[in-house]
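haha ok so turns out i had the wrong file open the whole time. this is the CORRECT one, sorry everyone. sequence first:
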Amino acid sequence: MSMCTAKALSSLGSSIPPLAPGMRRIFIVRHGQTDWNVQRRIQGGGADLELNKMGEAQAAAAAAELANVGPFSVVASSHLVRAKRTADHIAMKHPDARRIVDERFGEMRFGKFEGAELGADAEAAKEFRAIKKSWIEQGRVDLEWPCTPGSSTEVGESPQACADRGRAGIEALLKVGAEDDAVDETLPMAVVAHGAFNKLLISSLLWNDVRRSSELEQSNVAINVLDFDPANGSFEARILNYHEHAKAYNDGKCPCDAGLFGCE
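then structure:
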């Protein structure tokens, strides 16, 4: 595997290996910072927050970095505002790209933990960690986040279900060029999504094992580069969690990067 990590890079464009003939390249990006990121609150798919001032600056920096590796054929994003706004910054640098919004790229649904500040609630933190432990150590990747009894608004999702819908979204994007002559299949695509979602999606695409999401980090506006081989349906990582472009903005790091999932 030819792959670079964020620490080894000084420039994204100069560090990406050349794309092999017949391969497709996908840039998977995390959204910019929100106030809940700063507050270390669990920000799942049921929370639709806007970027804060720092997040807007981070998104602009990511767009400037990605302007040097295009043009993109497609700029896709989650339906949630924080991801859409980040993607809009990127799309402005790629005016000919098809802009797609797809709910399949939305953040994981955390059930009753949405909005929780685990650092201030020891009991909730204990239960949260126990559920994550059951995924990793017991392989219970179909176990959903619990919801408050009687709640009509909370949704709990399992890591496998989240990864599966993300894969379906990626598969649909890869078909866009084949179905639309106006989309150049030789050009790379960008997908802007979320912290937990990206970890689960990437671990599924690379290793077909969502438990390995615990090995990944996703800083705000992190850029991941994956190459897809249509001949065998496999993905190869080129760069994971690149965030040099955001070092001037809170060091490019989300306060919750440590652990399997943080504030997302």
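The longest helix spans residues 159-179.
again sry for the mixup
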